[in-house]
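Margin note: ligand = pyridoxal-5'-phosphate.
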Amino acid sequence: MDIKNALKALPTPSYVIDETALIKNLETLSYVEKQTGCHVLLAQKAFSAYRLYPLISEYISGTTASGIFEARLGHEEMGNKQVHVFSPAYKDQDFDELLGLCDHIIFNSFSQWKHFRTKALEHPEIEFGLRINPEYSEIETDIYNPCFTGSRLGITLSNFEEHELEGISGLHFHTMCEQGADTLERTLEAVEQRFGKYLYNMKWINFGGGHHITRPDYDVELLIKCINRIKDKYDVQVYIEPGEAIALNAGWLITTVLDITKNGIDIAIVDTSAACHMPDVLEMPYRPMIVGSEKPGVLPFTYKLGAPTCLAGDVIGDYSFNKPLSVGDKLIFTDMAIYSMVKNNTFNGMPLPSIYLLKQDGSTELLKEFGYEDFKSRL
Ligand SMILES: *Cc1c(COP(=O)(O)O)cnc(C)c1O
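Resulting structure:
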């Protein structure tokens, strides 16, 4: 059975993780580790399907977390690997627990560092770092730009308290989103210009996420060059913590056409929702791809695809097809492993999609199924 038929045989709505594509991504990331000695961490914010963590742990060095739950998940499920955490602010009770889960804890401000310093320094086995804001980002969408004016993320040079660095062994920046190694190269210049003088005294630097390493046109050799240059110049260990790149193009969302209607344009109602199952479509916004479709008007039959929710704007987009759509047809959205399962919700009583794994041998395995209780239990 070819992949398309295997996917269309599944009940909908379902996310399907593609083991083969995931492994291909992991091989690239593992290559970067081998060529540089850097450590690659999975940013769980993008992909937390922990049933795949044992596989992921065969290729990269660990996980990074944005708070207590992700830190615990990484600690529990990624085997004996590194667990880093960065949060804009820690709560006292969470911090105690994090000390038992993490090997690297990164603070967002000197006030947080000073608040937790005494406790932190009782744990020589843990490394502590600071997130800096190099005030340089090429991200054009403000919602994803940690350097916009007034951003709460990271310490700017003018707020950097250089006499408070005792106990700090690393710096962290995260200023990229879906970008190439050329952006990293320019970002590093900004980082060095402002914070280079502190780097000489650090043990490590973390380049954050947003590196689109597994996109076909990404310049992996330039990334390797950047990492090795910084590593050699400052004698530091380098970490990168991609989210997207780990599971880029490694999943689908399968949906069924429930009804076809008309209002100036042909409309197809499907059993998935942008608001519930792919919120980035509305947040970013972006237009996900569907196998066998084109932009509106390119192929003979164009439809506006919408959800069975009551939100008027719960529209996925306009797509054209070679044949008219019929009730019962199954559609396959691509690149649905990242920022999808982790963000989904049951707004309007929408069911959560099941999660399947398409294995290397072509068979599918149900990883997780949801029902009414998952909706009810949260309220
Ligand atoms: C979101 C985030 C990442 C991962 O970003 P991707 O764009 O998914 O690679 C890494 N580090 C931090 C601090 C983040 O906020």
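DSSP finds twelve helices and 16 strands in the chain.
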